[in-house]
Design a protein that fits this description.
It is a single chain. By secondary structure, this protein is α/β, with parallel strands linked by helices. The chain folds into two domains: 4-170, Rossmann fold (3-Layer(aba) Sandwich), CATH 3.40.50.720; 179-216 and 248-319 and 338-351, no CATH class. The chain contains 15 helices and eleven strands. The chain has helices at residues 14-23, 55-63, 82-101, 116-119, 146-161, 184-198, 208-212, 220-232, 251-261, 276-279, 284-294, 301-304, 307-314, 325-330, 338-351; strands spanning 4-9, 29-35, 46-49, 70-73, 108-112, 164-170, 173-174, 214-215, 218-219, 239-243, 249-250. The strands form three sheets. It has a seven-stranded parallel β-sheet, with helices on both faces. Strands 7-9 form a two-stranded parallel sheet. Helix 1 links the parallel strand 1 (4-9) and strand 2. Helix 3 (82-101) packs parallel to helix 5 (146-161).
Length: 356
């Protein structure tokens, strides 16, 4: 018997896609998905498209998917300023939740944000002293932040409509989702493939602090398992949770492991940041030739490898470590080795003909 229906808002993204793949086989669940554009390779049972900024269209689309019991909001839209991000992403979230609760069956709403909750928005990123490892009870960073806007909307709507809530705060997410705007794992796989095929040196492009320091990461699959757990575990209701793999690593070691996977030498680290957005600005024709040579899916490099996101993530000069004690104490004990998560992603990218 199906007694739980998941509405995944942003089902085509890195979080939504992996969440749909995880929930689909679970007993007692059905899966529906909402995205801005149609995607034929998604395995959800029912799906619809809508512009979340259009409240009426969103409500109409959700009404055609039945009566969701659990809403997972896994999308966002980047804007020129953080004030605009607050307005747009707040409206998108409100419209989606109100469309879902109109059906009368919503029990829980899960919101996915991230570590900019502790670091600040892109405009004031890490401008305050950081207190690591990050814990969920740390105060908000001064300044506008669309994560805070969405949380406040979540709290208000939960009180008004009587559902429970949770907030997931992952670190950098890796997982299968071609075309996702923030997909470090796929971008590194494309970078390594280009280096192997063209003879470019496989240079770590980030800061000395990221290269040598200790950090952590989030596999989209462990995030999916955590989202289901946090929405169904009674003791986890109405709480925010950090979500990471459970191990720590240094990029200088992981970089060598990535190089070995692609049969590449890891170039000596130059000791400074060398942004890929600059060094790979002219790489489009090289990638097109690689696609043709190996019969890959005809993706343009900028669609599957957003270099700006690699540069933003690996260029940080601050330590970013995340504490998961809250989840552990409540019973979520899943663990994922980050290097294994990377190689499994690379394996799938090859199977799906995204990389050679």
């Amino acid at each position: 018997m199906v007694d739980k229906t998941a509405l995944i808002v942003g089902v085509s993204g890195i979080v939504g896609r992996n969440l749909a793949e995880h929930i689909g086989p679970l007993a007692g669940w059905s899966v529906t998905g909402l995205s801005r554009h149609a995607h034929e390779d998604l395995g959800v049972v029912r799906r619809a498209t809508a512009d979340l900024m259009d409240a009426a269209a969103t409500r109409e689309a959700v009404s055609g998917l039945g009566r969701p019991t659990h809403v997972f909001f896994c999308t966002w839209a980047r804007q020129p300023t953080e004030v605009e991000s607050c307005a747009v992403n707040g409206a998108m979230f409100r419209n989606a939740v109100l469309a879902a609760v109109a059906g009368g069956g919503v029990r829980h709403v899960a919101l996915v944000t991230g570590l900019k909750h502790y670091l600040g928005s892109f405009e004031n990123y890490a401008t305050v002293e950081l207190d690591t490892p990050f814990t969920e009870d740390q105060p908000r960073v001064p300044g506008p932040n669309f994560y805070y806007t969405q949380e406040d909307i979540l709290f208000d709507l939960a009180a008004e409509h009587g559902f429970t809530w949770s907030v997931a705060r992952p670190h950098t997410i890796i997982g299968y989702a071609p075309g996702n705007a923030m997909n470090l794992g796929t971008s590194l796989a494309v970078y390594a493939s280009i280096c192997r095929e063209t003879g470019r040196p496989f240079v770590f492009p980030g800061s000395p602090q990221q290269y040598a320091g200790v950090t952590d990461m989030t596999d989209a699959r462990i995030l999916a398992r955590h989202l289901v757990w946090s929405t169904t575990e009674p003791n986890a209701a109405n709480m925010a949770f950090n979500v990471v793999n459970g191990d720590v690593f240094r990029w200088k070691k992981l970089w060598r492991q990535i190089a070995e996977y692609f049969d590449l030498p890891a170039a000596p680290y130059p000791g400074e940041t060398r942004p890929l957005a600059q060094s790979l600005a002219d790489v489009g024709p090289d990638w097109d030739r690689i696609v043709a040579r190996y019969g890959l899916r005809p993706n343009k490099v900028e669609a599957i490898a957003p270099w700006w996101h690699v540069d933003a993530d690996l260029g940080r000069t601050q330590e970013c470590l995340t504490d998961m004690s809250r989840s552990r104490e409540l019973g979520f004990l899943d663990y994922q080795k980050t290097s294994t998560a990377m190689t499994r992603l690379f394996d799938r990218l090859r199977r799906e003909r995204i990389i050679p």
